[in-house]
Amino acid sequence: MRTSTIGDVTILLPDLDPADLDPTTDLNDDLSEALVEDASWRGAVFDEVRVRSSRIVGTDLSESTWEAGTLFGCEIVRTDFSGASLSGMTLERCAVTGSRFTGTRLTDFRLKDVLFEECRFDYAAFTRVAAAGAVGFVDCILTDATWSSCRLPKVVLRSCRLDRLEVESCQLLGADLRGNSLHDLKTTLGNLRGLTLSDDQLADLTRLTVEELGLTIREQ
């Protein structure tokens, strides 16, 4: 088992040795200790698939549909989920690196001990996504994405692009957003309750306050 510590949060991650995994090109059955490389399932439909202690690398899953199912103890690397619909799924103890979720719809999604690094979530829609444990986004792009009715307490974001990220009816109590620009964040102040911020983000917070309250600021 390996861990990654971001700020005050420690995330439990898989520690897989590719030499111990069995190569496969079939994701339609439950997988355990499998290695999937450079496969293509664009537009495929997966129903209650369970993947455990496996590594998925360079795979095309764009426009695919996932209903329920679980990924536990998995590493996902340079995989394309663009335009996919992921509903009712659970990701637990997973590391997702260099993968693309452009325009992906994540609905009724559960996250626990998940680290996203250098992933693209531009135009992605998070709806009722819940974190039941530590979750981190590092060097990720979330421009023009939406978070709606999400419960992401203690989620950590570092060095992420949040331009025009829209946050609506979310519970982010204890979330750590230090190290990100909030300048173009689209949200009301109620969604920011209980956040951890740094001094250099106070100007952005002030701008959000002025906009929400409709204040007019003039020289004395």
Give a written overview of the molecule.
With 220 residues, the chain is mainly beta. The protein has a single domain, classed as E3 ubiquitin-protein ligase SopA (Pectate Lyase C-like). Strands 3, 4, 5, 7, 8, 10, 11, 13, 15, 17, 18 and 20 form a twelve-stranded parallel beta sheet that branches. An eight-stranded parallel beta sheet has the order 6-9-12-14-16-19-21-22, with no helix packed on it.
Arithmetic mean pLDDT: 93
CATH architecture: 3 Solenoid
Q: What's the total helix number?
A: 1
**Euclidean distance between termini CA atoms:** 60 Å
How many individual domains? 1
The largest β sheet comes out as: 12 strands, parallel
Alpha-carbon Rg, integer: 18 Å
Order of helices and strands: EEEEEEEEEEEEEEEEEEEEEEH
The CATH homologous superfamily corresponds to: E3 ubiquitin-protein ligase SopA
Tell me the helix content: under 10%
Query: Which band does the percent of strand residues land in?
Result: 35-45%
The unreliable regions are none
